[in-house]
TrEMBL record:
Localisation per UniProt entry: Membrane
Alphabetical keyword list: Membrane, Signal, Transmembrane, Transmembrane helix, Transport
Pfam assignment, any one: BT1
InterPro entries cross-referenced by the UniProt entry: BT1
Membrane topology, as annotated: Multi-pass membrane protein
Signal sequence region: 1-31
Source organism of this protein record: Nymphaea colorata (pocket water lily)
Protein name: Major facilitator superfamily (MFS) profile domain-containing protein
Protein backbone atom coordinates (compact mmCIF):
# COMPACT_ATOMS: atom_id res chain seq x y z
CA UNK A 1 0.00 0.00 0.00
CA UNK A 2 2.91 2.35 0.77
CA UNK A 3 4.48 1.83 -2.65
CA UNK A 4 1.22 2.08 -4.57
CA UNK A 5 0.16 5.29 -2.84
CA UNK A 6 3.59 6.85 -3.35
CA UNK A 7 3.75 6.00 -7.04
CA UNK A 8 0.18 7.18 -7.66
CA UNK A 9 1.01 10.46 -5.94
CA UNK A 10 3.98 10.92 -8.27
CA UNK A 11 2.02 9.96 -11.36
CA UNK A 12 -1.13 11.99 -10.76
CA UNK A 13 0.09 15.18 -9.08
CA UNK A 14 1.33 17.70 -11.66
CA UNK A 15 2.89 20.38 -9.41
CA UNK A 16 4.38 18.24 -6.66
CA UNK A 17 6.96 19.97 -4.45
CA UNK A 18 10.45 18.47 -4.63
CA UNK A 19 10.40 17.43 -0.96
CA UNK A 20 7.13 15.54 -1.38
CA UNK A 21 8.40 13.93 -4.59
CA UNK A 22 11.50 12.76 -2.72
CA UNK A 23 9.35 11.36 0.10
CA UNK A 24 7.16 9.58 -2.46
CA UNK A 25 10.23 8.01 -4.09
CA UNK A 26 11.46 6.89 -0.67
CA UNK A 27 8.00 5.43 0.02
CA UNK A 28 8.06 3.53 -3.27
CA UNK A 29 11.47 2.09 -2.48
CA UNK A 30 10.34 1.20 1.04
CA UNK A 31 7.32 -0.65 -0.35
CA UNK A 32 9.53 -2.73 -2.63
CA UNK A 33 12.00 -3.41 0.19
CA UNK A 34 9.24 -4.53 2.56
CA UNK A 35 7.92 -6.96 -0.05
CA UNK A 36 11.42 -8.33 -0.67
CA UNK A 37 12.10 -8.87 3.03
CA UNK A 38 8.72 -10.58 3.48
CA UNK A 39 9.44 -13.04 0.67
CA UNK A 40 12.93 -13.73 2.05
CA UNK A 41 11.43 -14.45 5.48
CA UNK A 42 8.92 -16.88 3.97
CA UNK A 43 11.69 -18.68 2.07
CA UNK A 44 13.81 -18.87 5.24
CA UNK A 45 10.89 -20.27 7.25
CA UNK A 46 10.12 -22.87 4.59
CA UNK A 47 13.82 -23.75 4.35
CA UNK A 48 13.77 -24.71 8.03
CA UNK A 49 10.84 -27.07 7.49
CA UNK A 50 12.13 -28.49 4.17
CA UNK A 51 15.99 -28.32 4.20
CA UNK A 52 16.54 -30.31 0.97
CA UNK A 53 14.48 -27.75 -0.97
CA UNK A 54 16.18 -24.64 0.46
CA UNK A 55 18.45 -23.97 -2.53
CA UNK A 56 15.64 -24.63 -5.00
CA UNK A 57 13.31 -22.20 -3.20
CA UNK A 58 15.93 -19.44 -3.24
CA UNK A 59 16.67 -20.06 -6.93
CA UNK A 60 12.98 -19.97 -7.79
CA UNK A 61 12.57 -16.74 -5.83
CA UNK A 62 15.47 -15.07 -7.67
CA UNK A 63 14.26 -16.35 -11.04
CA UNK A 64 10.72 -15.07 -10.42
CA UNK A 65 12.04 -11.68 -9.36
CA UNK A 66 14.15 -11.43 -12.51
CA UNK A 67 11.27 -12.39 -14.79
CA UNK A 68 9.01 -9.84 -13.08
CA UNK A 69 11.62 -7.11 -13.52
CA UNK A 70 12.08 -7.94 -17.21
CA UNK A 71 8.34 -7.89 -17.83
CA UNK A 72 7.94 -4.63 -15.93
CA UNK A 73 10.77 -2.92 -17.80
CA UNK A 74 9.42 -4.20 -21.13
CA UNK A 75 5.92 -2.87 -20.46
CA UNK A 76 7.38 0.42 -19.21
CA UNK A 77 9.46 0.84 -22.36
CA UNK A 78 6.48 0.01 -24.57
CA UNK A 79 4.28 2.56 -22.78
CA UNK A 80 6.91 5.31 -22.88
CA UNK A 81 7.40 4.67 -26.60
CA UNK A 82 3.67 4.86 -27.40
CA UNK A 83 2.47 7.43 -24.86
CA UNK A 84 5.64 9.47 -24.53
CA UNK A 85 7.42 10.85 -21.52
CA UNK A 86 5.27 13.03 -19.28
Amino acid sequence: IIGVFSMLLLALHKQLHVLFALLALIGGSAGAAIADVTIDACVAQNSIHHPPLAADMQSLCGFSSSIGALLGFSVSGFLVHHIGAQ
